[in-house]
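Quick one: co-fold with iron/sulfur cluster.
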Amino acid sequence: MAVTERMPWYVAGLCFKCQGCGACCSGPAEGYIWVTRPEVELIADCLEISVSRLRRQYLKRVGLRTTIIEHEYTKDCVFLRKIDDQRQCIIYPVRPSQCRTWPFWADNLKNASNWNKAARKCPGINRGRLYTREQIEQIKNKKKWWQDGKQQPDIEESS
Ligand code: SF4
Ligand code: SF4
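Sure, here it is.
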């Protein structure tokens, strides 16, 4: 018997274009910005500091995982800085997988309601470039981005 593939609700694709507002990197809600060991090394290289200093100053352990810390009061990611009046990620070329795959996270893609809920926080969702279902799934499942041999964003940068 032929097995019919169940189509995801976003089979026609989804639009996204980052507007550069920085909302996904900032508070007021507390969150986690998970990093893996290879990402820790890349971030340390990018900041030209040792891995141990990076871990001491900017990371913390939560159970078995490691997260980038947030500012105590604003809950902004510690790597979000104001440069030329714009909020920018100072480790952008090596930002972790969690950051580079937004908004195509499994939870956001579960159903249209979750997607539209995410859109209320992120003005880039449902705007701009159309990503096909295949592209969405490729981004969603891409954890080891550094293995590409390039550190290019998979999702278009904001203009
Ligand atoms: S991804 Fe969304 S929330 Fe984050 S900076 Fe871009 S537009 Fe703003
Ligand atoms: S690492 Fe960069 S992209 Fe990720 S949350 Fe922090 S400032 Fe935002």
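If it helps, The radius of gyration is 17 Å.
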